[in-house]
Design brief:
The N and C termini lie close together (7 Å). It is built from 19 helices and 7 strands. The protein is α/β, with parallel strands linked by helices and 566 residues long. The protein has a 7-stranded mixed sheet with strand order 3-2-4-1-5-6-7, with helices on both faces. The structure holds guanosine-5'-triphosphate (GTP) and magnesium ion. The site of magnesium ion has 6 residues, from α3.
């Protein structure tokens, strides 16, 4: 007998498994192979359509499924059980195309909604209540070796939701391969089962066939049921039919009828079967659950690899961009020239030549009269130039990341489903401009603050903050480092004058600090923009850590399941 399992624990465990299986199913993506999807779907379906309702209600009617190849006599057996013509039998194969459910109306209600039969399409169920007995549901399934794919699928679902399987075959069919595949699943799922072999020849051949069949079960490790009993193998002789032709003589399958009678008569017997089936199903879920966990681990490896590729391309482009900034000379000449003609104007130059002390006053006058400072135009020019540069680098990163992804089996379907990955995001230019405007506003705030404790400067600054911010901004861009040849002229000269102007206004140390801070903030801004670009790739790939965590929790859940037999 199966060890009685602790109900609340099992219910909690099954609920945990259901939640994990659903999470796993939700993580299935377009690049998962058919077997991976199938395993995920099977786990989700089996946990929620069989395990959960069974764990929550061990007193729900027991579900017995008659399985086997076409023409084996399943419908004939259902009629034998019901005592009347419940299911049509026939010579045309396959005869039974929908699941014929022998159950009382009340029992059907009990298992239909959210219960095991809820997993089956309503249109494929034919309910027969005449001859049904409370507590016992018997389902005559479509044949397992059906040429009709739908029939096979229906039989597969029935294997998942049953509490007891009656495998019906014949003396000439029992060695066929397909039914053995289905029996393999019955064994894996540890579904209690018994076997009926129909149409045995008369004489000593019958015993030989039964013992050969038994040997085949032994060979497949199925000779012993989960409860430690030998499987029941019931032989039925050819021609053991009632005169009405649609059912067997009850005496020929007496052990099966007795077992069903006992289930109907005794609630405790039904409960014991339900417990055995539940514990078996839980234990039988381990291989599938471990495969699903392995799938998740493989998916995590692929996901991490894809993320690493994208991250590598974006960080490479970001460092090229920053290197470019450090080399200087990214601003177009005409932008620099505008500022040069302002800071290089006569009065400014004269002011520098007459010494810093006196320059302050002149500077204030200059800043007060700032309208002529081309701050807005220079800010726009610099922003445009830097934006173009950011977009160009983001574009390169996107192109290479997409190309690398499309060269991998897990990345290719993602890239081919989203052509936008090959280029920078269409709104990147706009977002960059906004981010750079915010960056310059921050510099302006620094300038205002630095000027605040220099009273003469402060007085003039209300108008001069923009010009001050642009001055610092150019301090970040237009330094001389790395400039060569013709560029040296206007850019270097501007940088030189700019520096002088700044130092005169705020003092050298404050200027160095402001430029450094602006440079640091610019890096952060660029990093944020590139990160957002890369996030388009990341979003298509599940988080590796999350996948591994789910795999671990799935394994832990089935490893916590109680052993199936005592
Ligand atoms: N002569 C003879 N015919 C039998 C015997 N047992 C069953 N049959 C017939 O075999 C045919 C097939 O039986 P069914 O019960 O319809 O088989 P099934 O397994 O339900 O077949 P599908 O619905 O196609 O999956 C029927 O015509 C039965 O009357 C038997 O012992 N002797
Ligand atoms: Mg049939």
């Amino acid at each position: 007998m199966t060890q009685p399992v602790d109900r609340p624990d099992v219910v909690a465990l099954v609920e945990r498994l259901v939640a994990l299986a659903r999470q796993r199913e939700a993580l299935i993506g377009p690049n998962d192979s058919a077997p991976v999807r199938e395993r995920a779907r099977e786990l989700a379906q089996h946990t929620s359509s069989y395990l959960l309702p069974r764990a929550r209600d061990l007193d729900a009617p027991v579900l017995v499924v008659l399985l086997g190849p076409t023409g084996a006599g399943k419908s004939t057996l259902l009629n034998t059980i019901s005592g009347g013509p419940a299911s049509e039998t026939g010579v045309l194969r396959p005869t039974t195309r929908d699941a014929v459910v022998l159950a009382t109306a009340e029992d059907v209600r009990r298992v239909r909604q959210g219960g095991p039969l809820g997993a089956l399409p309503e249109a494929r169920l034919r309910i027969v209540s005449r001859g049904a007995r409370t507590g016992l549901i018997v389902v005559d399934a479509p044949d397992v070796d059906s040429v009709e794919r739908d029939n096979r699928a229906l039989a597969d679902v029935l294997v998942e939701v049953a509490d007891l399987c009656v495998f019906v075959t014949t003396a000439s069919r029992y060695a066929d391969q397909v039914p053995w595949d289905v029996l393999g699943r019955v064994a894996e799922r540890r579904l209690p089962f018994l076997v009926v072999i129909n149409r045995l020849p008369a004489g000593p051949d019958a015993a030989a066939i039964l013992s050969d069949a038994r040997a085949r079960f032994v060979e497949r490790g199925m000779a012993v049921a989960t409860d430690g009993r030998q499987i029941s193998l019931i032989g039925v002789s050819e021609g053991d039919l009632e005169t009405d032709g649609y059912r067997l003589r009850p005496g020929s399958v007496r052990p099966l009828l007795d077992r069903l009678d006992a289930l109907v008569a005794d609630r405790a017997a039904r409960r014991a079967l339900a417990e055995e089936a539940l514990a078996g199903a839980l234990a039988g879920l381990a291989p599938l659950t471990h495969s699903v966990a392995d799938d998740l681990d493989h998916q995590a490896i692929d996901a991490d690899a894809l993320r690493r590729v994208a991250a590598g391309e974006y960080s490479h482009e970001l460092s090229l961009l920053i290197e470019r900034l450090q080399r200087g000379g990214i601003l177009r000449d005409e932008v620099v020239r505008q500022w040069h003609s302002f800071v290089g104007a006569d009065q400014v130059t004269r002011m520098f030549s007459s010494g810093i002390g006196r320059a302050r006053g002149a500077l204030m006058a200059l800043f007060r009269g700032m309208p002529q400072a081309p701050a807005a135009a220079v800010q726009k020019g610099a922003t445009d130039d830097l934006t173009a540069l950011v977009v160009a680098h983001a574009h390169d990163a996107a192109r290479r990341a997409a190309a690398n992804w499309s060269a991998t089996p897990s990345g290719a379907p993602l890239v081919s489903a989203d052509a936008a990955l090959w280029t920078a995001a269409p709104d990147l230019a706009e977002r960059t401009r906004l981010a750079l405007d915010a960056w310059i506003r921050d510099i302006g705030a620094d300038v205002a603050e630095a000027g605040a404790d220099k009273r003469p400067v402060a007085r003039g600054l209300s108008l001069g903050v923009n010009a001050g911010a642009v001055t610092i901004m150019l301090g970040v861009f237009a330094h001389t480092g790395g400039l060569t040849g013709a560029e040296m002229g206007v850019a270097a000269a501007t940088a030189f004058l700019n520096q002088k102007l700044l130092n005169a206004l705020f003092g050298e140390a404050a200027v160095i600090e402001m430029v450094e801070r602006a440079r640091w903030r610019l890096r952060e801004t660029l990093l944020g923009l590139m990160d957002a670009e890369r996030a388009r790739f990341d979003a298509l790939v599940p988080d590796g850590a999350q996948l591994r965590d789910l795999a671990g929790r799935l394994r832990a859940a089935v490893d916590d399941a109680p052993p199936p037999s005592g």
